[in-house]
Protein backbone atom coordinates (compact mmCIF):
# COMPACT_ATOMS: atom_id res chain seq x y z
CA UNK A 1 0.00 0.00 0.00
CA UNK A 2 1.46 3.37 -1.08
CA UNK A 3 1.61 6.55 0.95
CA UNK A 4 -1.36 8.07 -0.87
CA UNK A 5 -3.48 4.99 -0.17
CA UNK A 6 -2.47 5.04 3.50
CA UNK A 7 -3.46 8.70 3.84
CA UNK A 8 -6.75 8.10 2.04
CA UNK A 9 -7.50 5.19 4.36
CA UNK A 10 -6.59 7.21 7.47
CA UNK A 11 -9.02 9.99 6.59
CA UNK A 12 -11.68 7.57 5.33
CA UNK A 13 -11.99 8.74 1.73
CA UNK A 14 -13.97 5.68 0.65
CA UNK A 15 -16.33 5.91 3.62
CA UNK A 16 -17.09 9.56 2.84
CA UNK A 17 -17.11 9.04 -0.94
CA UNK A 18 -14.45 11.66 -1.59
CA UNK A 19 -11.00 11.93 -3.14
CA UNK A 20 -7.79 13.99 -3.06
CA UNK A 21 -8.92 16.47 -5.68
CA UNK A 22 -12.22 17.22 -3.96
CA UNK A 23 -10.69 17.52 -0.49
CA UNK A 24 -7.85 19.72 -1.72
CA UNK A 25 -10.19 22.06 -3.58
CA UNK A 26 -12.37 22.24 -0.48
CA UNK A 27 -9.36 23.11 1.68
CA UNK A 28 -8.21 25.84 -0.70
CA UNK A 29 -11.71 27.30 -0.75
CA UNK A 30 -11.99 27.33 3.03
CA UNK A 31 -8.55 28.91 3.39
CA UNK A 32 -9.35 31.67 0.91
CA UNK A 33 -12.60 32.36 2.73
CA UNK A 34 -10.72 32.51 6.05
CA UNK A 35 -7.53 34.23 4.89
CA UNK A 36 -8.83 37.68 5.81
CA UNK A 37 -8.23 36.81 9.48
CA UNK A 38 -4.47 37.05 8.88
CA UNK A 39 -4.95 40.78 8.34
CA UNK A 40 -8.10 41.53 10.34
CA UNK A 41 -7.08 39.87 13.61
CA UNK A 42 -3.79 41.82 13.89
CA UNK A 43 -5.62 45.03 12.92
CA UNK A 44 -8.04 44.54 15.82
CA UNK A 45 -5.62 43.27 18.46
CA UNK A 46 -2.94 45.85 17.67
CA UNK A 47 -5.39 48.53 18.83
CA UNK A 48 -5.12 47.09 22.34
CA UNK A 49 -1.65 45.50 22.45
CA UNK A 50 1.17 47.99 22.91
CA UNK A 51 4.73 46.72 23.40
CA UNK A 52 7.46 49.07 24.54
CA UNK A 53 10.24 49.40 21.98
CA UNK A 54 8.11 48.27 19.02
CA UNK A 55 6.00 50.42 16.73
CA UNK A 56 2.44 49.47 15.77
CA UNK A 57 3.56 48.09 12.40
CA UNK A 58 5.95 45.65 14.05
CA UNK A 59 3.31 44.61 16.58
CA UNK A 60 0.87 44.12 13.68
CA UNK A 61 3.27 41.72 11.96
CA UNK A 62 3.93 39.82 15.20
CA UNK A 63 0.19 39.38 15.60
CA UNK A 64 -0.16 38.23 11.98
CA UNK A 65 2.42 35.51 12.64
CA UNK A 66 0.79 34.30 15.87
CA UNK A 67 -2.62 34.37 14.17
CA UNK A 68 -1.28 32.00 11.54
CA UNK A 69 0.49 29.75 14.07
CA UNK A 70 -2.62 29.44 16.26
CA UNK A 71 -4.69 28.62 13.17
CA UNK A 72 -2.22 25.92 12.12
CA UNK A 73 -2.29 24.27 15.55
CA UNK A 74 -6.07 24.28 15.92
CA UNK A 75 -6.76 23.16 12.36
CA UNK A 76 -4.10 20.42 12.47
CA UNK A 77 -5.71 18.98 15.63
CA UNK A 78 -9.06 19.15 13.83
CA UNK A 79 -7.56 17.23 10.89
CA UNK A 80 -5.78 14.44 12.73
CA UNK A 81 -7.78 14.10 15.96
CA UNK A 82 -11.32 14.92 14.80
CA UNK A 83 -11.09 14.08 11.07
CA UNK A 84 -13.55 16.86 10.26
CA UNK A 85 -13.29 19.41 7.38
CA UNK A 86 -13.38 22.47 9.64
CA UNK A 87 -10.86 25.31 9.73
CA UNK A 88 -9.98 27.13 12.96
CA UNK A 89 -8.50 30.55 13.70
CA UNK A 90 -8.79 33.35 16.27
CA UNK A 91 -12.48 34.16 16.33
CA UNK A 92 -14.02 37.31 14.91
CA UNK A 93 -16.12 39.00 17.54
CA UNK A 94 -14.11 37.31 20.24
CA UNK A 95 -11.02 39.27 19.17
CA UNK A 96 -13.01 42.51 19.12
CA UNK A 97 -14.37 41.73 22.58
CA UNK A 98 -10.81 41.06 23.77
CA UNK A 99 -9.43 44.31 22.35
CA UNK A 100 -12.17 46.89 22.62
CA UNK A 101 -14.33 45.74 25.53
CA UNK A 102 -11.92 43.99 27.90
CA UNK A 103 -8.68 45.90 27.30
CA UNK A 104 -9.66 49.35 26.01
CA UNK A 105 -13.05 49.98 27.66
CA UNK A 106 -12.70 48.00 30.89
CA UNK A 107 -8.99 48.76 31.26
CA UNK A 108 -7.79 45.19 31.79
CA UNK A 109 -4.08 44.87 30.84
CA UNK A 110 -3.66 42.93 27.61
CA UNK A 111 -1.20 40.63 29.35
CA UNK A 112 -3.84 39.67 31.92
CA UNK A 113 -6.44 39.22 29.18
CA UNK A 114 -4.14 36.71 27.44
CA UNK A 115 -3.77 34.83 30.73
CA UNK A 116 -7.58 34.71 30.98
CA UNK A 117 -7.84 33.21 27.49
CA UNK A 118 -5.20 30.64 28.47
CA UNK A 119 -7.15 29.58 31.58
CA UNK A 120 -10.32 29.41 29.48
CA UNK A 121 -8.52 27.05 27.10
CA UNK A 122 -7.32 24.82 29.94
CA UNK A 123 -10.87 24.65 31.31
CA UNK A 124 -12.13 23.73 27.84
CA UNK A 125 -9.56 20.94 27.53
CA UNK A 126 -10.59 19.51 30.92
CA UNK A 127 -14.33 19.76 30.23
CA UNK A 128 -13.92 18.23 26.78
CA UNK A 129 -11.81 15.35 28.13
CA UNK A 130 -14.53 14.33 30.60
CA UNK A 131 -17.37 14.84 28.10
CA UNK A 132 -18.96 17.81 29.87
CA UNK A 133 -19.03 20.07 26.79
CA UNK A 134 -20.64 17.32 24.74
CA UNK A 135 -23.27 16.81 27.44
CA UNK A 136 -24.15 20.51 27.56
CA UNK A 137 -24.38 20.86 23.78
CA UNK A 138 -26.65 17.82 23.57
CA UNK A 139 -29.00 19.63 25.98
CA UNK A 140 -29.73 22.18 23.27
CA UNK A 141 -33.43 21.90 22.32
CA UNK A 142 -34.09 20.40 18.89
CA UNK A 143 -35.58 23.65 17.50
CA UNK A 144 -32.29 25.36 18.31
CA UNK A 145 -30.11 22.61 16.83
CA UNK A 146 -31.99 22.52 13.55
CA UNK A 147 -32.21 26.30 13.14
CA UNK A 148 -28.58 27.20 13.87
CA UNK A 149 -27.52 26.45 10.29
CA UNK A 150 -30.06 28.82 8.77
CA UNK A 151 -29.22 31.47 11.35
CA UNK A 152 -25.54 31.23 10.50
CA UNK A 153 -26.49 31.40 6.81
CA UNK A 154 -28.25 34.74 7.24
CA UNK A 155 -25.37 35.94 9.44
CA UNK A 156 -22.87 35.06 6.70
CA UNK A 157 -25.07 36.64 4.03
CA UNK A 158 -25.38 39.86 6.04
CA UNK A 159 -21.63 40.06 6.75
CA UNK A 160 -20.82 39.49 3.09
CA UNK A 161 -23.25 42.09 1.78
CA UNK A 162 -21.86 44.67 4.21
CA UNK A 163 -18.25 44.09 3.16
CA UNK A 164 -19.32 44.28 -0.50
CA UNK A 165 -21.07 47.62 0.26
CA UNK A 166 -24.39 46.27 -0.99
CA UNK A 167 -25.83 46.85 2.49
CA UNK A 168 -24.77 50.13 4.12
CA UNK A 169 -25.71 52.22 7.18
CA UNK A 170 -28.76 54.38 6.57
CA UNK A 171 -28.05 58.10 6.99
CA UNK A 172 -30.13 61.19 6.32
CA UNK A 173 -29.21 64.11 4.09
CA UNK A 174 -27.00 65.56 6.82
CA UNK A 175 -25.09 62.32 7.27
CA UNK A 176 -26.68 61.27 10.56
CA UNK A 177 -27.96 57.72 11.30
CA UNK A 178 -31.69 57.54 10.80
CA UNK A 179 -34.65 55.45 9.78
CA UNK A 180 -34.17 51.73 9.38
CA UNK A 181 -30.44 51.68 10.32
CA UNK A 182 -29.42 50.04 7.02
CA UNK A 183 -30.24 50.41 3.34
CA UNK A 184 -29.14 49.10 -0.05
CA UNK A 185 -25.79 50.42 -1.25
CA UNK A 186 -25.60 52.35 -4.51
CA UNK A 187 -23.66 50.18 -6.91
CA UNK A 188 -23.35 53.07 -9.39
CA UNK A 189 -21.48 55.15 -6.82
CA UNK A 190 -19.38 52.44 -5.19
CA UNK A 191 -16.73 50.65 -7.31
CA UNK A 192 -16.59 47.92 -4.63
CA UNK A 193 -20.34 47.33 -4.88
CA UNK A 194 -20.21 47.35 -8.68
CA UNK A 195 -17.38 44.83 -8.93
CA UNK A 196 -18.89 42.74 -6.13
CA UNK A 197 -22.23 42.44 -7.95
CA UNK A 198 -20.45 41.34 -11.11
CA UNK A 199 -18.25 38.90 -9.20
CA UNK A 200 -21.22 37.53 -7.29
CA UNK A 201 -23.24 37.06 -10.48
CA UNK A 202 -20.29 35.26 -12.07
CA UNK A 203 -19.87 33.00 -9.03
CA UNK A 204 -23.59 32.16 -8.94
CA UNK A 205 -23.45 31.38 -12.66
CA UNK A 206 -20.58 28.95 -12.14
CA UNK A 207 -22.30 27.38 -9.13
CA UNK A 208 -25.59 26.93 -11.01
CA UNK A 209 -23.69 25.29 -13.86
CA UNK A 210 -22.22 22.80 -11.38
CA UNK A 211 -18.63 23.97 -11.93
CA UNK A 212 -16.30 22.51 -9.29
CA UNK A 213 -14.43 25.24 -7.48
CA UNK A 214 -16.96 27.92 -8.42
CA UNK A 215 -16.44 29.79 -5.15
CA UNK A 216 -12.64 29.90 -5.27
CA UNK A 217 -12.76 30.85 -8.98
CA UNK A 218 -15.14 33.67 -8.11
CA UNK A 219 -12.89 34.95 -5.31
CA UNK A 220 -9.68 34.93 -7.37
CA UNK A 221 -11.31 36.35 -10.50
CA UNK A 222 -12.92 39.22 -8.59
CA UNK A 223 -9.67 40.01 -6.76
CA UNK A 224 -7.72 39.95 -10.04
CA UNK A 225 -10.27 42.26 -11.68
CA UNK A 226 -9.90 44.76 -8.83
CA UNK A 227 -6.12 44.82 -9.23
CA UNK A 228 -6.27 45.10 -13.04
CA UNK A 229 -8.67 48.05 -12.86
CA UNK A 230 -6.35 49.72 -10.35
CA UNK A 231 -3.14 49.06 -12.30
CA UNK A 232 -4.84 50.34 -15.46
CA UNK A 233 -5.54 53.63 -13.70
CA UNK A 234 -9.32 53.32 -13.99
CA UNK A 235 -9.73 53.28 -10.19
CA UNK A 236 -7.69 55.02 -7.52
CA UNK A 237 -5.33 52.81 -5.42
CA UNK A 238 -6.91 51.76 -2.13
CA UNK A 239 -10.44 51.59 -3.54
CA UNK A 240 -10.48 48.11 -5.07
CA UNK A 241 -7.18 47.10 -3.47
CA UNK A 242 -6.42 46.87 0.27
CA UNK A 243 -5.14 50.08 1.88
CA UNK A 244 -1.43 50.50 1.25
CA UNK A 245 -1.15 47.28 -0.79
CA UNK A 246 -0.82 49.09 -4.12
CA UNK A 247 2.07 51.29 -2.95
CA UNK A 248 3.77 48.34 -1.28
CA UNK A 249 3.60 46.19 -4.41
CA UNK A 250 4.56 48.89 -6.91
CA UNK A 251 7.21 50.71 -4.86
CA UNK A 252 8.86 48.00 -2.78
CA UNK A 253 8.25 44.99 -4.97
CA UNK A 254 7.10 41.52 -4.00
CA UNK A 255 10.55 40.27 -2.98
CA UNK A 256 11.15 43.16 -0.60
CA UNK A 257 7.73 42.68 0.94
CA UNK A 258 8.29 38.98 1.51
CA UNK A 259 11.59 39.71 3.27
CA UNK A 260 10.20 42.43 5.55
CA UNK A 261 8.03 40.33 7.88
CA UNK A 262 8.64 40.56 11.66
CA UNK A 263 8.95 36.93 12.79
CA UNK A 264 10.12 37.57 16.36
CA UNK A 265 7.04 36.95 18.53
CA UNK A 266 8.83 36.54 21.85
CA UNK A 267 7.59 39.93 23.19
CA UNK A 268 4.03 38.61 23.00
CA UNK A 269 4.99 35.40 24.79
CA UNK A 270 6.70 37.27 27.62
CA UNK A 271 3.65 39.49 27.85
CA UNK A 272 1.56 36.37 28.41
CA UNK A 273 3.97 35.20 31.11
CA UNK A 274 3.70 38.60 32.78
CA UNK A 275 -0.08 38.28 32.65
CA UNK A 276 0.06 35.04 34.63
CA UNK A 277 1.87 36.94 37.36
CA UNK A 278 -0.92 39.53 37.49
CA UNK A 279 -3.64 37.01 38.40
CA UNK A 280 -2.94 37.16 42.15
CA UNK A 281 -3.16 40.97 42.10
CA UNK A 282 -6.55 41.12 40.34
CA UNK A 283 -8.37 37.85 41.18
CA UNK A 284 -11.95 39.16 40.85
CA UNK A 285 -11.25 40.96 37.60
CA UNK A 286 -9.52 37.87 36.28
CA UNK A 287 -12.43 35.59 37.25
CA UNK A 288 -14.98 37.86 35.52
CA UNK A 289 -12.90 38.05 32.34
CA UNK A 290 -12.42 34.26 32.25
CA UNK A 291 -16.16 33.75 32.82
CA UNK A 292 -17.07 36.08 29.96
CA UNK A 293 -14.56 34.62 27.50
CA UNK A 294 -15.61 31.10 28.48
CA UNK A 295 -19.33 31.70 28.11
CA UNK A 296 -19.23 33.49 24.75
CA UNK A 297 -16.67 31.10 23.24
CA UNK A 298 -18.46 27.97 24.47
CA UNK A 299 -21.74 28.73 22.76
CA UNK A 300 -20.25 30.45 19.74
CA UNK A 301 -18.15 27.36 18.99
CA UNK A 302 -21.05 25.01 19.71
CA UNK A 303 -23.32 26.93 17.36
CA UNK A 304 -20.75 26.99 14.59
CA UNK A 305 -20.05 23.26 14.86
CA UNK A 306 -23.74 22.38 14.79
CA UNK A 307 -24.48 24.80 11.97
CA UNK A 308 -21.73 23.73 9.57
CA UNK A 309 -22.28 20.07 10.50
CA UNK A 310 -25.95 20.35 9.60
CA UNK A 311 -24.93 21.94 6.30
CA UNK A 312 -22.53 19.06 5.62
CA UNK A 313 -25.01 16.37 6.61
CA UNK A 314 -22.93 15.25 9.61
CA UNK A 315 -25.70 15.45 12.24
CA UNK A 316 -27.66 12.40 13.39
CA UNK A 317 -31.46 12.19 13.61
CA UNK A 318 -31.44 13.99 16.97
CA UNK A 319 -29.46 16.92 15.62
CA UNK A 320 -26.25 15.87 17.39
CA UNK A 321 -22.75 15.64 15.91
CA UNK A 322 -21.27 12.19 16.60
CA UNK A 323 -17.97 12.36 18.50
CA UNK A 324 -18.38 16.12 18.91
CA UNK A 325 -15.83 16.04 21.72
CA UNK A 326 -13.06 15.58 19.13
CA UNK A 327 -13.61 18.84 17.18
CA UNK A 328 -14.26 20.57 20.51
CA UNK A 329 -10.81 19.48 21.65
CA UNK A 330 -9.31 21.12 18.57
CA UNK A 331 -10.58 24.57 19.50
CA UNK A 332 -9.59 24.03 23.15
CA UNK A 333 -6.00 23.20 22.20
CA UNK A 334 -5.90 26.03 19.66
CA UNK A 335 -7.13 28.53 22.25
CA UNK A 336 -4.59 27.39 24.85
CA UNK A 337 -1.61 27.52 22.48
CA UNK A 338 -2.81 30.72 20.81
CA UNK A 339 -3.04 32.61 24.11
CA UNK A 340 0.51 31.59 25.03
CA UNK A 341 1.94 33.12 21.87
CA UNK A 342 -0.22 36.23 21.94
CA UNK A 343 -3.66 35.96 20.34
CA UNK A 344 -7.28 35.78 21.43
CA UNK A 345 -9.61 32.78 21.51
CA UNK A 346 -9.37 30.24 18.66
CA UNK A 347 -12.62 28.81 17.36
CA UNK A 348 -14.12 26.84 14.48
CA UNK A 349 -14.89 29.10 11.53
CA UNK A 350 -18.28 29.40 9.87
CA UNK A 351 -16.34 29.89 6.63
CA UNK A 352 -15.64 26.15 6.80
CA UNK A 353 -19.04 25.76 5.16
CA UNK A 354 -17.54 27.11 1.92
CA UNK A 355 -15.20 24.12 1.72
CA UNK A 356 -17.99 21.75 2.69
CA UNK A 357 -20.04 23.15 -0.18
CA UNK A 358 -17.13 22.25 -2.48
CA UNK A 359 -17.31 18.65 -1.26
CA UNK A 360 -14.95 18.57 1.73
CA UNK A 361 -15.94 15.74 4.06
CA UNK A 362 -12.82 14.64 5.98
CA UNK A 363 -9.94 15.96 8.01
CA UNK A 364 -7.82 16.10 4.86
CA UNK A 365 -9.69 19.29 3.97
CA UNK A 366 -8.62 20.74 7.32
CA UNK A 367 -5.06 19.53 6.70
CA UNK A 368 -5.00 21.45 3.42
CA UNK A 369 -6.26 24.55 5.25
CA UNK A 370 -3.45 24.15 7.82
CA UNK A 371 -0.91 23.68 5.02
CA UNK A 372 -1.96 26.91 3.32
CA UNK A 373 -1.79 28.76 6.63
CA UNK A 374 1.77 27.42 6.92
CA UNK A 375 2.61 28.76 3.46
CA UNK A 376 1.09 32.07 4.51
CA UNK A 377 3.84 32.38 7.12
CA UNK A 378 6.22 33.13 4.25
CA UNK A 379 3.77 35.09 2.12
CA UNK A 380 1.93 37.30 4.63
CA UNK A 381 2.19 40.38 2.37
CA UNK A 382 0.71 38.45 -0.58
CA UNK A 383 -2.28 37.30 1.46
CA UNK A 384 -2.79 40.94 2.41
CA UNK A 385 -3.27 41.83 -1.27
CA UNK A 386 -6.56 39.88 -1.55
CA UNK A 387 -9.39 42.42 -1.07
CA UNK A 388 -11.92 41.60 1.63
CA UNK A 389 -14.90 42.11 -0.66
CA UNK A 390 -13.57 39.35 -2.95
CA UNK A 391 -13.28 36.78 -0.15
CA UNK A 392 -16.70 37.76 1.20
CA UNK A 393 -18.30 36.59 -2.03
CA UNK A 394 -17.98 33.14 -0.52
CA UNK A 395 -19.99 34.15 2.53
CA UNK A 396 -22.89 35.42 0.42
CA UNK A 397 -23.01 32.31 -1.76
CA UNK A 398 -22.77 29.88 1.14
CA UNK A 399 -25.12 31.97 3.28
CA UNK A 400 -27.85 31.57 0.73
CA UNK A 401 -27.19 27.86 0.34
CA UNK A 402 -27.38 27.33 4.11
CA UNK A 403 -30.94 28.64 4.17
CA UNK A 404 -31.92 25.12 3.13
CA UNK A 405 -31.86 24.36 6.87
CA UNK A 406 -35.25 26.01 7.40
CA UNK A 407 -36.81 22.96 5.72
CA UNK A 408 -35.94 20.90 8.83
CA UNK A 409 -38.04 23.15 11.10
CA UNK A 410 -41.64 22.34 12.07
CA UNK A 411 -43.15 25.80 11.57
CA UNK A 412 -46.63 24.59 12.59
CA UNK A 413 -45.47 23.89 16.16
CA UNK A 414 -45.44 27.13 18.23
CA UNK A 415 -42.43 25.92 20.23
CA UNK A 416 -40.41 25.31 17.08
CA UNK A 417 -41.74 28.48 15.46
CA UNK A 418 -40.72 30.79 18.31
CA UNK A 419 -37.48 29.11 19.42
CA UNK A 420 -36.23 28.57 15.87
CA UNK A 421 -37.38 31.99 14.69
CA UNK A 422 -35.53 33.74 17.50
CA UNK A 423 -32.39 31.65 17.00
CA UNK A 424 -32.30 32.44 13.28
CA UNK A 425 -33.03 36.18 13.50
CA UNK A 426 -31.11 37.19 16.63
CA UNK A 427 -27.79 35.88 15.22
CA UNK A 428 -27.45 38.37 12.35
CA UNK A 429 -29.24 41.21 14.14
CA UNK A 430 -26.78 41.12 17.07
CA UNK A 431 -23.79 39.80 15.07
CA UNK A 432 -23.43 36.90 17.52
CA UNK A 433 -24.04 33.18 17.11
CA UNK A 434 -24.07 32.82 20.91
CA UNK A 435 -26.83 35.41 21.28
CA UNK A 436 -28.99 33.57 18.77
CA UNK A 437 -28.53 30.30 20.63
CA UNK A 438 -29.32 32.08 23.90
CA UNK A 439 -32.59 33.43 22.52
CA UNK A 440 -33.66 29.96 21.41
CA UNK A 441 -32.61 28.24 24.64
CA UNK A 442 -34.28 30.82 26.91
CA UNK A 443 -37.54 30.86 24.95
CA UNK A 444 -37.85 27.06 24.62
CA UNK A 445 -38.82 26.15 28.22
CA UNK A 446 -41.05 29.21 28.50
CA UNK A 447 -43.09 28.36 25.40
CA UNK A 448 -43.17 24.68 26.34
CA UNK A 449 -44.64 25.65 29.70
CA UNK A 450 -47.10 28.06 28.06
CA UNK A 451 -48.65 25.27 25.97
CA UNK A 452 -48.78 22.86 28.90
CA UNK A 453 -45.75 20.74 28.00
CA UNK A 454 -43.43 22.03 30.72
CA UNK A 455 -42.76 18.49 31.94
CA UNK A 456 -41.00 17.75 28.63
CA UNK A 457 -38.28 20.28 29.50
CA UNK A 458 -35.36 18.66 31.29
CA UNK A 459 -33.68 20.09 34.34
CA UNK A 460 -30.56 20.62 32.28
CA UNK A 461 -32.45 22.72 29.72
CA UNK A 462 -33.94 24.88 32.47
CA UNK A 463 -30.46 25.28 33.94
CA UNK A 464 -29.07 26.37 30.58
CA UNK A 465 -31.82 28.95 30.15
CA UNK A 466 -31.32 30.38 33.66
CA UNK A 467 -27.54 30.42 33.19
CA UNK A 468 -27.94 32.51 30.05
CA UNK A 469 -30.16 34.97 31.90
CA UNK A 470 -27.56 35.29 34.67
CA UNK A 471 -24.81 35.76 32.09
CA UNK A 472 -26.63 38.62 30.37
CA UNK A 473 -27.32 40.31 33.71
CA UNK A 474 -23.62 40.14 34.63
CA UNK A 475 -22.48 41.23 31.16
CA UNK A 476 -24.81 44.22 30.90
CA UNK A 477 -24.09 45.24 34.49
CA UNK A 478 -20.36 45.28 33.72
CA UNK A 479 -20.95 47.19 30.50
CA UNK A 480 -23.04 49.78 32.36
CA UNK A 481 -20.40 50.14 35.07
CA UNK A 482 -22.59 48.66 37.81
CA UNK A 483 -20.01 45.90 38.25
CA UNK A 484 -16.53 47.38 38.18
CA UNK A 485 -13.59 45.49 36.68
UniProtKB/TrEMBL annotation:
Ubl conjugation is among the record's keywords: no
Entry's Gene Ontology molecular function annotations: purine nucleobase transmembrane transporter activity
Q: Which residues cross the membrane?
A: 25-44, 59-80, 87-106, 112-132, 144-161, 188-208, 215-234, 254-273, 285-308, 328-350, 362-383, 389-409, 421-447, 459-478
Q: Which UniProt keywords apply?
A: Membrane, Transmembrane, Transmembrane helix, Transport
Q: Where in the cell is it found?
A: Endomembrane system
GO cellular-component terms in the record? endomembrane system; plasma membrane
Task: Report how it sits in the membrane.
Answer: Multi-pass membrane protein
One Pfam match, given by its short name, reads: Xan_ur_permease
The answer to whether keyword tRNA processing applies is no
Which InterPro entries does this entry report, sorted A to Z? Azg-like, NCS2
Instruction: Name the domain of life this protein comes from.
Output: Archaea
What family does the database annotate? Belongs to the nucleobase:cation symporter-2 (NCS2) (TC 2.A.40) family. Azg-like subfamily.
Q: Which PANTHER family match?
A: XANTHINE/URACIL PERMEASE C887.17-RELATED, XANTHINE_URACIL PERMEASE C887.17-RELATED
Kindly provide the name given to this protein in its UniProt entry: NCS2 family permease
Q: Which organism is it from?
A: Natrarchaeobius halalkaliphilus
